[in-house]
Design goal:
The chain contains no helices and eleven strands. By secondary structure, the chain is an all-beta fold.
């Protein structure tokens, strides 16, 4: 199971760090979903690299601490359009993906709200 933490409310320009405890998975991704929208890929990390959605590139950083079985999403320069429920997801496959349907396990989500 995946457990996320670190969400909250901040003003535009602020920062938050999300954490996801994910043991035994090669590919771990972050997704987000705002009300009325489809689930959107944000970033992923796996043994062959890291990738970001264009909308967060340069502002968000994904990293992992293998000793703690934890993946982090550092979010800087937050914008109101970043407001969403953020989900951690994991995939046992060697390769990572940007498609929610390709992920095996999901966390419960953590809310991020950015006010202007």
């Amino acid at each position: 199971q995946l457990v996320e933490s670190g969400g909250g409310s901040v003003q535009a320009g602020g920062s938050l760090r999300l954490s996801c405890t994910a043991s035994g998975y090669n590919c771990v991704g972050w997704f987000r979903q705002a009300p009325g929208n489809e689930r959107e890929w944000v970033a992923y990390i796996y043994s062959h690299g890291i990738n970001y959605a264009d909308s967060v590139k340069g502002r968000f950083t994904i990293s992992r601490d293998n000793a703690k079985n934890t993946v982090y999403l550092q979010m800087n320069s937050l914008k109101p359009e970043d407001t969403a429920m953020y989900y951690c997801a994991a995939r046992r496959s060697f390769w990572c993906s940007v498609r929610p349907a390709d992920f095996d396990t999901w966390g419960q989500g953590t809310q991020v709200t950015v006010s202007s």
